[in-house]
Structure formats: structure tokens, C-alpha cells
Specification:
This protein is an all-alpha fold. The chain contains 2 helices and no strands. The termini are far apart. Keywords: Membrane, Transmembrane, Transmembrane helix.
Length: 65
């Protein structure tokens, strides 16, 4: 193994550590926001709730009417 290969390997390990550190910081920030009460409901949950309400109303209209 020559110097360039070991330098590439070290750079890759550094990039991986940086990615892991950024990911951990992002998770820590999200947990801190949630503890402060800044929790937001994910968009997909709101979408599912809206679809369920609309389907429920349509079923009520078609089954009763």
C-alpha cells in the first residue's frame, strides 16, 4: 500500500466520522426541540388523517344517501 492509498483511506474514515457526527448532532437537536415542546407532526401523518376523514365522509354520504 502506498501513501496515496492510506491518505484516501484516512480521508474516507474522516468523512464517515464527519457524517456520523453531523447525524448525531441532528438527532440531538431534534430531541432538544421536542423537549422544548416544538414537536411538529410529520406531513405524511397529516395526509393520512385528511384522507381518512374524506373517505369517512364519502362512505357516510354513499351508504346513507
Amino acid at each position: 500500500m502506498n501513501e496515496s492509498e492510506s491518505a484516501d483511506r484516512e480521508r474516507g474514515d474522516t468523512q464517515r466520522l464527519n457524517w456520523i457526527d453531523r447525524r448525531r448532532a441532528k438527532i440531538r437537536d431534534e430531541i432538544a426541540r421536542n423537549r422544548r415542546g416544538e414537536y411538529t407532526v410529520p406531513t405524511w401523518v397529516l395526509t393520512v388523517a385528511l384522507v381518512a376523514i374524506v373517505v369517512g365522509w364519502l362512505a357516510l354520504i354513499f351508504l346513507v344517501g
